[in-house]
Amino acid sequence: MAESVIQIRNLSKIYRDFWGRKKVRALNSLSLDVEKGEVFGLLGPNGSGKTTTLKLLLGLLFPTEGKITVLGKPASNVEKNERIGYLPEESYLYKFLNAEETLNFYGQLFKMSRVERKKRIDELIELVGIQHARKRQLKEYSKGMTRRIGLAQALINNPDLVMLDEPTSGLDPIGTREMKDLIIQLKEQGKTVVMCSHLLADVQDVCDRIAILYGGELKVMGEVDQLLTEQDETQLHTSRLSEAAISEIREVLARHNAELSGVEQPRANLEDLFLRTVHESKSRPGRRFTSDEAAQSSATTAVETKTDDKPSDDTPDDKNSPAS
Amino acid sequence: MIPNIQPYDLMTGIKHWATVVGTLTGVFFVLAVILVTISRVVPLLWNALLALFTGRPFPEKFGERLVEGLLAGPVNVTKGVWNGLLDFALMSPRRVWALTVLTIRESLRRKAFSVLVIFAVLMMFAGWFFAGGDDVKVYISFVFRVISWPMLILVLLLSCWGLPRDIKDRSLHTVVTKPTRKSEIVVGRLLGYSAVTTAAVALMAVVGYIWIVRQTPEDARSQLIARVPIYGTLTYLDREGNFAEKGVNVGDEWDYRGFIEGGTRSRAIWEFKNIDTRRLNDQLVIESNFEAKRMHKGDIGKTLLMQYTLINPKSGDRIDVPQTHISEFGENITTVPRQFTFYDRDTKQNRTVDLFDAAIADGNMKIEVRCLNVGQFLGMAEADLFLRTPNAPFWFAYVKGFAGTLLMLLLVILFGVTASCFTKGPVATIATCVFVLVRQLRPFQEIFERILNQKPGEEILGGGPIEATIRVYTHLNPQVPMHDHLSPTGSESVDFLIFKVVKQIDGVIIEGLRLAVNVLPDFTQFYTETRLANGFDVSWDTTLLPAVTLTLAYIIPCLLIAYYSLKNRELEAK
Amino acid sequence: MILADMTGLVQDYLFDGLILVGLIAILVVIIFLDHLKSRQRKLAYLGMMVALTIPIIYLGMPSTPSEGQEGGELAQLRTEYKLGESTLGDVDPASSTMNLVLLGFRGIAASMLWLDAKHYQKTKDWTNLNETVKSIIQLQPHFKEVWSFQGWNLAFNVSVEMDAVEDRFFWVKEGAKFCQDGTRRNRDAHKIYWDVGRIKGFKIGQSDEWEYYRKFFVIDPDVERFNGGPDREINPDELDNYLEAKRWFQRHNDTDVHKRASVNRRSYPARAQFDYASTRQREGKFDETTRLGWEQAYEDWTQKFGQERFMTNAGELFLEATDGELEVMAKERKVDVEVLKNRRDSYRQTCNYNFWKAAAKMESRPEITQAHKNIFEAKHLYKQGKTSPSLVRPAVDFCSRLDDLTLTNDQHAIAKIICASQEPLSRQEIVKKSGMTSTATNKVIAELEEDNHVQRVSKAQLLLESGMLTFERQLQNAPELGLSGRVLTDDEAELVNKDRDHIEALLEAILYWRSIHELNGREIPKTYPLKSVWDSSQELVRNVKRQFYRENGMAAESE
């Protein structure tokens, strides 16, 4: 069994007002574990306590009851932060510094040599794509750029545990895709990622395990696959079938005591379409697709065999390779 | 202002500091333990009581939890203290440096700094409209005032609002989620603000120096000096020639100076110890600053006449220096060459002596002063007569003067950052202002003086706050006891009891005030420029050392308070 | 005419009209707002703005007196009724700035500065005291009592703390300069002018240091700075201090347009003139300038001060009014003449009008100046010790009875010589004229003296007697002076406030005269000039005696 990176036991948090009276019970006896190397998603509607949980993990709030252990140390311990990276929902950075100074400052807070720090700064700036603005003060950045520099500072120390608060909210589809790719990349590097979100589609794409919170209580927890996979049905992907073939199949199924719940043409992912369109618009400006053409192009690639829900190998690519 | 010529007693100061800080730390420790214990044990006991009387289920593992709760206090508080000390000991210089640089950048880029520097410079231009007087004192005071006031405002704004703004903008959260100790945050901010302040003060000091030198008219340039005096201790002889601790009071409200009567045996005697004759430059230069009080008109056209006599404390040998008229507002400098010829009244002939051999014995010497006008009085205080040694360079004294100003600003930074660790910006500003101003405002000074000078067992005239209110309301004279004249209930014994209670409460309040006065800093120690403005060197052991120790004394307590406040603060709590 | 009226009307109403038009235009636009397109609306606004600017400028433009611009109507009204800061006096920009910066905490700041000033005065920190007071005045430049008080404080309290008389004078000057500044900042505050006069007049002229102060007022002790001349800030025309003070008292009167100050206060210009003349006499300057000073004093008192009209509860009066004039007034106003007389006399009494009038008249006589001179010279001789009787003069009726008396030939000869001379002769002169030996002459003179036919007197005594006689004659003609010795009627006695200075001066002369008799071993004659004054002022005699002993370095007699 993989070791637990995060252990939460009976965690409760009650917000009190100035006079000490209870105002809000944000968390109620929450218990969960996060294993090393997985991407863990904390889901829930607004006000369910996910951000509170994250802040408790980071030591920005103090628990009313319960125990938290992160990387083997209590939440209030400061040394464990060496190996943690945190991307807040809004980037709370110093507006009067520029990108370089920001990364340099946060980098200095970690045990890194100057040379190494410098290297990482350059790497990260390139990774998040803000080279053109590296000398501009942060107060002049757009929201997307701020998010990117925030991400850069979260990764400056090459952390083992990355905590992301609503990483994709407010981003356009391209940005969202990039973020998701990055999360997957982090996972492949062996890092543990904990993310809060209420954008379910994004969570579904990247997370290994999820927990759903409501009203401060844990309602559902488990692996995404297991939770989402419909146990009672099988999905077959075939090439285009004629009506006769379909009725024949119906008969075969009836012989195996199964039913044909539905026959339709699968739909491609809107995200894929979007990204492809954007990409092609860049390489061939001025041309506009009509709906017929769109349908045509999608028809040729829609029929693929799908047996599981992992994203296909043929995923919409980065900007450089043309669509086939 | 009364010049302070006593060297600062460092050992006493340290002892006093250790006592106060130790006491307060002990008090806080005990308080913390009590609080923690109460918060654990009381709910438990309450539930147990409820269970006993209302039949609710008895709390589980009662005994175990009770023991745990009782131990929690000392254990947790000690752990907290230990962790805190560790946090300070293990501070990483690299991180502190990063935070310092951040603070400096923040101060510079927020532009408040440049506005105030410009402001100060503009004020100096306003000084060009000075009606060019000769009094160098005015120019020096002006420069110090025009620099320290804006800097004080700047420092208040920076130090009281920096951290709260950080917390409000949540930029501190990002820092806190990195492996940054709270101690590093506090120290980083302190160092950053201190660096900015020092640079600003240095810059303005240089400009100020140039301004002073240019503003002083040619003939008054000689007033830009830093005298280095050697002081002695003063005693008096009364008009019959007997020893007296103090001189005569001639009716002035201010009894800083004691007076000797002219034409009698009354004398003022200064005793100098451990004179290093190498500093004297082969002559004795005596400078004095006496006050004249005429009891009758006398010779209106001439000022009073006085005479110095040098006395060898061992041999009793007396050497008369020629009489001089005093000049109350001019220089009263008498230079006696080392090889000195004078008329000896005993032998009735002239005698030539080597002063250093004849007058100074083992480094000790006495100077006796008498007034020669019958019926007139000459007034002096201990600092009014001194031996001159070669002057210190003016610019050096000027720099030392600014050291005092800088120390004051550093202390304000310390207070501001500490206060901002547990309150919001405006409250921190007000709290720091109170700390800075309270012991300086003239109306409060009188009250504090009375409290500080109260001898044990002695009552303060007029009583404490409650008694004073009663007296004001009933128009009762402070000289008479209350129970003699007031009778609120009619029963004598009950009245007496009431007044006794009042006095007890007042006593407690006054003790609290006494503690507060001991804790509040006396900012007048920082006004090192008065020595400079009066033409004296800013000496280390009488003037600068008290200022340095004053600032240093607050470092440890403030750091601790700031650290624990920040650590126990829920940064995210709205 | 009609045109003028019309233009006047138009002017009056033009600008009101313009404003009205502007307002109506705004209303119109608002009502029809939606019908106008954006550009038209903007034009309408622009037009209204222009229209409104004209009356605004006309009414509200500030005045710039330095450039001669009167400014708009409001500014003109402000100047006329003296409502603006700049019309109260000179404006100090630093002062206004400080007031603005304090954001309304001016009162607190001023109070704290007063506490500081008290502290500095207590600890004798004069430089800081001066600076603090200047700061107070910057905050509250129109607080008149501050100017009065502090000027007085500096000149009267701070100055005496100094030892050297030059330092004392410096602070007296500071006080005067301070009040002068006050008058510049508050041109209509008449009391402050009077304060300047008081410092320059009384403080300088009547302190113990008066001799030094008066000298310094003309030749400042700071020779370096003032080149042996006066400090032009307080004595721009190198005048005597009382004459300079008189100017300021006159300014007080001129500024006090509504005559709020008391009649007594308004008499000060004339009184300064009196002081000028009498102080010159104190200094021993008995010359034509002094006499003319007294003449001027008489004119100032009767022609200027006496003619000033002031309001009483019986109507307007003036002090120089004669009974006849009062009767005319009474008839006009239909009031009882006695009431008017009463009023006039009581006002006269408050400022001792009659006394001063008579004194000025008397003193402006040449014979009185001569009398003063004689007495002064006599005192001088006395102080030098020249009191021995060296002159011989005949007894009162000796010369007229000469032929009737039985004298020896020598006696007769000498007597003739003595009588022939107008002035008393010294013994040497008699010896010369007689041709006899000095021993013989002296013997004869001694004989004559024994028989009380001649007296031997000192020059000092003669001078004193001549002076005393002149005075007595004058006083008999001037009953207002109350010194004639004859019994005054109750009214006269009531009306006269005996002026101690004058009486003491005469008593002093008598005292010297008596002292000379004592020194020469002579008995004091039963009658002598001014005897009545001596007899009726015994309380004052005691004071005079004390002063006399002190001045002449004698131990005081036990009474």
Q: What kind of sheet is the major sheet of chain A?
A: 6 strands, mixed
Unreliable segments of chain A (pLDDT under 50, ≥5 consecutive)?
296-324
For the termini of chain C, the CA-CA separation is 90 Å
Strand segment count of chain C: 5
Which assembly state applies to the chains in this document? heterotrimer
Would you count the extended β strands of chain A for me? 10
Rounded Rg of chain A: 23 Å
* Shape call of chain C: elongated
Distance between the termini of chain A: 43 Å
Decide which structural class fits the backbone of chain A.
Answer: alpha/beta
**Helical percentage of chain A:** 25-40%
Order of helices and strands of chain A: EEEHEEEHHHEHEHEEHHHH
Largest interface: A-B, 30 and 26 residues
Number of helices of chain A: 10
In round numbers, the mean pLDDT of chain A is 81
Topology:
The complex is a heterotrimer of chains A (324), B (574) and C (559).
Chain A: E1 4-16, E2 22-35, E3 39-43, H1 50-58, E4 65-70, E5 73-74, E6 84-87, H2 99-108, H3 114-128, H4 143-155, E7 161-165, H5 173-188, E8 192-197, H6 200-206, E9 209-214, E10 217-223, H7 224-228, H8 243-255, H9 270-283, H10 291-302
Parallel strand pairs in A: 3-8, 3-9, 6-7, 7-8
Antiparallel strand pairs in A: 1-2, 1-4, 4-5, 9-10
Helix pairs in contact in A: 2-3, 3-4
Chain B: H1 10-54, H2 62-89, H3 93-109, H4 112-126, H5 136-169, H6 171-176, H7 182-215, E1 226-230, E2 233-237, E3 243-244, E4 258-261, E5 267-272, E6 283-288, E7 291-294, E8 305-311, E9 318-320, E10 324-325, E11 333-337, E12 339-344, E13 349-354, H8 355-358, E14 365-371, E15 376-380, E16 385-392, H9 394-422, H10 425-437, H11 442-452, H12 465-474, H13 482-485, H14 492-519, H15 529-533, H16 540-567
Antiparallel strand pairs in B: 1-16, 2-3, 2-5, 4-15, 5-14, 6-11, 6-16, 7-15, 8-9, 8-10, 8-14, 12-13
Chain C: H1 2-31, H2 38-60, H3 73-80, H4 85-88, H5 93-101, H6 106-122, H7 126-139, H8 144-158, H9 165-185, H10 190-206, H11 210-218, H12 223-226, H13 241-255, H14 263-266, H15 268-282, H16 288-305, E1 310-312, E2 315-317, H17 323-333, H18 337-350, H19 353-363, H20 366-384, E3 391-394, H21 409-420, E4 425-426, H22 427-434, H23 438-450, E5 454-457, H24 459-477, H25 490-495, H26 500-519, H27 531-536, H28 538-551
Antiparallel strand pairs in C: 1-2, 3-4, 3-5
